[in-house]
Amino acid sequence: MTDSNAKVLYTPLAEARWAYLIDPRPQMDPDKPMAWSVDLVLPANDPKTIEFHKKLEDAFIAEHGTKKRRSDKGFPLKPDKNDPDLLVCKFKAQQLVRRDGTTAPGPKLIDAKKQPWDGSAIGNGSKLIVAFRIHAWDRPEGCGISLIPRAAQVVHFVPYLEEDATEGFEEQAGGYTVPGVVDEFDEFGDEL
Predict the structure, then answer these.
(1) Which of 1, 17, 81, 154 could be cross-linked to 39 through a Cys-Cys bond (beta carbons 3.0 to 4.6 Å apart)?
(2) pLDDT, tens digit, 9 for 90 and up, residues 99-110
(3) Model confidence over 121-161: pLDDT tens digits?
(4) For the range 27-33, what are the long-range contacts, defined as Cβ-Cβ under 8 Å and sequence gap of 24 or more?
(5) Separation of alpha carbons 105 and 119, rounded Å
């Protein structure tokens, strides 16, 4: 099946988790293409979340009806594994490779004032609105819908920080030192 619902839809403002919108995420299987993805975390009982959930259910029913068997992975909005008061909505789009070998760009990103995004990696806790299209599918294990991210607006930005785990260590007197490692002393530093 193809994008049966060509209309672009929008999420409510929600917290991002695992945003791969700047660079695509590598797949576990090297034969599969990399993918753009993000999970949005929504409060389950919020009226905007309830309305969003209803839109997705209506889209599912419009495509598949009510009698087809739904795949276990057939609906992109599920309860959070750690907090029953939250729902997690998954968005994913494979990185497309053109015939000439170049890759198509990922989702377009903008800031809160609709300016182009500066390329900074988006960390957990950032708040986004995602523009997406619904892709309906039907497989032997059942039917479902996937949400394809087309664009995202970063309303609240939390930078992605790659933690250096070695920062928490202290030097240990009398311990092993790698041979050939020299302190930062430069004996020729003043000779220019």
Answers:
(1) 17
(2) 888 888 889 999
(3) 999 999 999 999 999 999 999 999 999 999 999 999 999 87
(4) 32/94, 33/94, 33/95, 33/96, 33/97
(5) 13
